[in-house]
# Entry
Amino acid sequence: NARGKTAKKKIISRKRAYHGVTVATASLTGLVPNQRDFDLPIDRIHHVNCPFAYREAEPGETDDQFTDRLAKELDQFIEHEGPDTVAAFFAEPIQGAGGVLIPADGYFPKIKKVLDKHDVYFVADEVICGFGRTGNMFGSQTFDMQPDSISVAKALSSAYLPIGAITIGDEMYEAMLEESRKIGTFGHGYTYTAHPVCAAVAIKTLEIYKKRDIVGHVRKLAPVFEARFAKLADHPLVGNARAKGLIGAVELVADKATKRSFDPAQKVGITCQMNAEAEGLLSRALGGDIVALCPPLIIQEDEVNEMFDRLERALDATEHWVTKEGLRTA
# Structure
């Protein structure tokens, strides 16, 4: 409204995205459990396909062809809706809760080109990837996203105290400033906005990240972490293994050749998570029998290897259970 583009209100997110659980952010989220029975998404929020090549790429389609197709689909969607009605596009560098979905190189530059073509504001949700997780300070750097704005939280204070933040560019700031002067206030603060204790902890956290070279540490360990995940692809229960920096996941399947999933009611992913916990390893089972690891950034190489040794034992125990129960044919 402040920019005089009063019809430009629609927001595009992606399927399997996670951006929160308020009425608006749960609408941006692209996961069914976060929307079912909540009458979501609300009007003017739409979802396009995400870069989940393991499940969404067509047979024989290369990474370039797949990302070209997604960029073309986004372009066509905006054209169909009307560029003058589409305001923004939200995306996580790596889709965390959606399954640790890692885009192919070149995906985001192609998406950015489409957004620039239609004057669509690009917001990167860096809540998971920000502050070193992918081997750069921000995931946007790792995947060449070039967003107009980023949102951050979690690692901003190393999660010691709750804090979040969002950056905005000069054009958006000036528009907000002028409109606030016209109205007489900017009426969108929060109860704990700029809380001095949380802000102090965040500042100290950023100092420690720099002092201890946390980003450099992640870069050093990433090859070990990624290699151990890649090795898990050979496990009879694992259909796909993927990792970037210090975040990764395995996707458990009933048939590796066809990528056939287990029946969700069998709770194979949850069982694997429980088996990992029995080994003293905390993991997270996500929808689609995806088991994810996202360790502390200060983890050491011997601890990385111990973590995967425990996960391998958990996978073996889960495979034994799946075979014993005959779940592949159930």
Observations:
- The chain has a mean pLDDT of 97.
- Strands lie at 10-14, 45-48, 86-91, 121-125, 149-152, 165-166, 238-244, 247-252, 284-286, 290-293.
